[in-house]
Every structure is written in C-alpha cells, then in structure tokens.
C-alpha cells in the first residue's frame, strides 16, 4: 500500500503544513538500483583516538571517492578510544561535519570489542553504543548511523560495503560485531553468490519473494520453498528467477530429509523466512493458535536446521539466516505467540552460532524486521498502521527489499566473520533496544 503521508510531505504544501504542526517529515529513501548502485557522493574518513586498524585499503574498495566536503558517507574510526577523555575526540570529529552530510547519507562508527581487563576502556567503548543510537534518532533527512565493533578491517569489508551503500537504507541504530574468522573474497563483488545454492522458505510472496530475487540477482541458484497450497506462486517466482520450486510444508516431521533429497549436491545458504501470525490477546487465544505459530515460526526452524547441519546437506562455508522480528525484542500486544516464536529465533541464533561455526564452518545470523510494507501490514487498521510507520527514526515503513538486502549481506561469502548477530531492519524503531 502506498504511503500517502510520505508522498504528501514531499510536496511544498506538505512540508509547510507538517513543519507548522510539528509532524514527522520523512525523507524518501534512496535505495540500491542498477542505475544507482552506490551512494551519490564521497566518503570522509575520520579518526578519534589512536588507531592502527589499517582501514584505508578497505575503504578504497567501496567505490566511494574520498572527499572533504558534503560527504555521502562518514566513517569514524573510534577503535582507539580507551578513556572518557578520549570521547571528546568523537564530538570534535563529527560535530563540524554533520550538517554537510547529504540526504540518505551514512555515518558508520567503528569501535573495538570491550576489554574485560580494562573497565575504563569498556566504559568508553560502550559509550559509543549510546552515542550511535542517539545520533541515529536525531540526524534526520533519511540518513543512518550504525556502530561496527571490529579488530580486523579486512574481515569487515562486506559489512562496510553494505552499510556504506544504498542497500542499507532502512538499517539504522544497529551494533554489529565482526569477528576474526577467515573470509572468502568473491571473484566478483557484483555477483558474490555465483555458484551457490540458496533455499528460501516462504518464498512464494512478500519478503520471501524479495529475498529470492535479491539472492538470484547476486548470482545464487534459488530454491523457492512454500506450502503446497502456494505451489503455483512458488513456481512462478522460481521460473522468473531461473530457480526451482519446492512445494513442502516446512512443519512436516520429515521436511529436513525431503529438502536434503531435493538437493543431492548440497546447500550453501539456508534462509528461514516462512512465518505466520494468529493474533489474539492471550486471554482470548485458544491453544491451537498458540501451537500453530510456535510450530511454523520456531519448531520447524529448529528441526530443519538440525537435520541439514548434521546430515552435511549444508556445506562448509554455508550461511543460515533466520527471520526474527522486533516483536520478539520489544513485544507486541495481541502477539504473545508470535513474540515468543521470534524471541526463540534470537535464542537459537545466539546459542547455535559459535557451535555451527566451529563444528560445520557455517555462520548463523538473524534479521529482525520492523514495520515492513506488505499485504499483511496493509490489512492493519489505519491509525495503528500509521503509528507503525512513523515510530522509527526514519518515520516510514520499510520495504521487503530492505530485509532482502540485509539477508544478502549476511549470506555473502565475505561475511564469514559476522556470526551470531541479530540485525534489526526497522528504521531504528523507537520500540526495543
């Protein structure tokens, strides 16, 4: 459904009226397209504290020219911050340039892991999290602010490329930790998934369809899985993308075995997107509504993941990306079942990620969408829908492509050092952390 308020605020009368009334003034976001794959402007590299990160070669490969004026992106290397006094350098570095950042621009702050042996360093580095999230809520004009904790610039290249691109238009206020696992650099950054097979559940429509399209764009052979009732739509999507359709009820006890049978050459990327809602307040919720949501959204994910890992169907170097939700982080009235299922996904990711990487060389991450413009949200009553759209730092709903682009980054072969992360795709929702 079209966001008429966003369209109205883009007109002269709309800007005047909303300014006078103190209403939100969302900026139309500039997303990735073949015609505009990069940010429209240059990159400004700043440093706070003493750093030996060796960041310059990685930034040079982002396709953004170095600039001193009107940057489209600002990277502040604050990995050397160790004391509260050092934090003054964060202010002095960013304060003079914030107004000059172009609309839909990016600010990426780089921090270091917290040192358990140095509580002064830990306090100063944790301060960057509150700073980043606060700046994201005030910067405006469609610009985003994120924090990346890292020790190895090369391991963070895929993350920096994503956050410094139009692909991250609806990702703001996030803290991403990048480890030091070996990274596979793709032969072609424009088609990094070439030669890889990706299975997407619930891919016949909506967000799942957008994920399949994006992974296919990046070179993957996609397997479009959906329930047998949606087989016609699944085949339509698969045929359009040069992939294959797999009609299957993901809650079936043998779903994992049937996926493995359909993929004798193995699987590189597993995207758990299938999900349902059966909303009702707990006091009015019959047991079958509770069971259905937990079964589809969580139990099936656990069963199929376990089978595909232990059977070796998911190959070394593989990626698992599951779909959580801000409902699993902040909760939502009428969605105790859904919130429980999506919080369970977060628990799965945090527990499984280190073991899957150590035992199978597979990363496990999650995306947590906020208000995304889909047929499901279009059915929400008008006032609630408008509240959902406006209650984030970008003052608008996201698009399925925003979730898809974030998923593609986590599925990237060069994202091997990104593991155990839950990344909200919510425009920095005012709900939740």
Automatic annotation (TrEMBL):
SMART domains: PKS_KR. Residues 196-370 form the Ketoreductase domain. This is 3-oxoacyl-ACP reductase. NCBIfam families: PRK08261.1. InterPro entries: KR_dom, NAD(P)-bd_dom_sf, Sc_DH/Rdtase_CS, SDR_fam. It holds the Pfam family adh_short_C2. Belongs to the short-chain dehydrogenases/reductases (SDR) family. Transmembrane segments: none annotated. PANTHER family: 3-OXOACYL-[ACYL-CARRIER-PROTEIN] REDUCTASE [NADH] (PTHR42760:SF78), SHORT-CHAIN DEHYDROGENASES/REDUCTASES FAMILY MEMBER (PTHR42760). It comes from the Bacteria. The lineage of its organism: Bacteria, Bacillati, Actinomycetota, Actinomycetes, Kitasatosporales.
């Amino acid at each position: 459904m079209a966001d008429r308020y966003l369209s109205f605020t883009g007109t002269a009368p709309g800007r005047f009226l909303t300014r006078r009334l103190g209403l939100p003034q969302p900026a139309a976001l500039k997303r990735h397209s073949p015609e505009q794959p990069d940010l429209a402007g240059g990159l400004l590299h700043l440093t706070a504290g003493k750093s030996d990160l060796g960041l310059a070669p990685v930034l040079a490969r982002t396709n953004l020219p170095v600039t001193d004026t009107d940057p489209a992106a600002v990277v502040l290397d604050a990995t050397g911050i160790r004391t509260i006094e050092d934090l003054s350098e964060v202010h002095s570095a960013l304060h003079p340039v914030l107004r000059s950042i172009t609309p839909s621009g990016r600010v990426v702050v780089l921090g270091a892991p917290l040192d358990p042996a140095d509580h002064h360093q830990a306090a100063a580095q944790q301060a960057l999290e509150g700073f980043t999230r606060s700046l994201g809520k005030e910067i405006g004009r469609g610009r985003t602010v994120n924090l990346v904790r890292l020790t190895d610039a090369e391991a963070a290249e895929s993350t920096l490329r994503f956050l410094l691109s139009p692909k991250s238009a609806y990702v703001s206020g996030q803290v991403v930790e990048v480890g030091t696992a070996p990274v596979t650099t793709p032969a072609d950054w424009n088609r990094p998934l070439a030669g890889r097979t990706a299975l997407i559940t619930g891919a016949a429509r909506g967000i799942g369809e957008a994920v399949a399209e994006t992974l296919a764009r990046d070179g993957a052979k996609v397997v479009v899985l959906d329930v047998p009732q949606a087989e016609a739509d699944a085949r339509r999507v698969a045929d359009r993308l040069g992939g294959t359709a797999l009609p299957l009820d993901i809650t079936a006890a043998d779903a994992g075995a049937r996926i493995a049978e359909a993929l004798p050459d193995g699987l590189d990327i597993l995207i758990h997107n299938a999900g349902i809602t059966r909303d009702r307040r707990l006091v009015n919720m019959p047991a079958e509504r509770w069971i259905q949501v937990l079964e589809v959204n969580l139990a099936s994910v656990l069963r199929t993941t376990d089978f595909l890992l232990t059977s070796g169907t998911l190959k070394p170097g593989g990626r698992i990306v599951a779909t959580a939700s801000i409902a699993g982080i902040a909760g939502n009235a009428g969605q105790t079942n859904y919130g429980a299922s999506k919080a369970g996904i977060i628990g799965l990711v945090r527990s499984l990620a280190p073991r899957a990487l150590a035992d199978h060389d597979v990363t496990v991450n999650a995306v947590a969408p906020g208000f995304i413009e889909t047929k499901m949200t279009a059915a929400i009553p008008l006032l609630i829908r408008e509240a959902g759209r406006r209650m984030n730092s970008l003052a608008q709903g996201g698009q399925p492509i925003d979730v898809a682009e974030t998923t593609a980054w986590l599925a990237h072969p060069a994202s091997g050092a990104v593991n155990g992360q839950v990344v909200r795709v919510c425009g920095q929702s005012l709900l939740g952390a």
